[in-house]
Design brief:
This protein is mainly α. It is elongated. The termini are far apart.
């Protein structure tokens, strides 16, 4: 995973996170986010996985995945997409404007990364963006050769 709960907690407090994943309405004291089998943590990790899958769908055509070392920008994008996914669980019809705005910006960032208008420094190198074009045409294939064109 590109991010984890600690990364999300840098942006949202536990008091903001728990209502988004506490489907059973358990007491806060009964929720153990260090227990990998806790339903709330499973839901959080599911939102992170969805965010990471979305990131991969944009980047797999340009970068070799998985990254040996995850670039900081990808961690930030993953956090914002995961937070959006958390809010989508509960506030689909009443999404906070800042969350929606961050999501749209991150999708735009991913599109730019996919197109190559924005680049990541991944694994210590940038991807090969060679502009060399190889064609299979020869001078003999021309319809209007130099001899014909010289007549005009």
């Amino acid at each position: 995973m590109y991010c984890n709960l600690d990364n999300i907690k840098d942006q949202l407090s536990i008091d903001e996170i728990l209502p988004l994943v506490n489907d059973e309405k358990r007491a806060v004291a009964d929720i153990d986010l260090t227990d990998k089998d806790d339903e709330c943590l499973i839901r959080i990790n599911d939102c992170i996985r969805k965010a990471d899958n979305e990131i991969d769908s944009y980047l797999r055509s340009r970068y070799e995945l998985p990254f040996a070392e995850v670039p900081e920008e990808i961690i930030d994008i993953s956090v914002d997409l995961a937070i959006y996914n958390l809010y989508m669980r509960r506030k689909r019809l009443n999404m906070p404007e800042s969350i929606d705005k961050n999501y749209k910006k991150r999708i735009q960032d991913l599109k730019e990364l996919q197109k190559g208008t924005k680049l990541l420094k991944a694994d210590g190198k940038t991807p090969d963006m060679s502009t060399d074009i190889e064609v299979n045409k020869r001078p003999e294939d021309r319809i209007f050769n130099n001899g014909l064109l010289d007549q005009f």
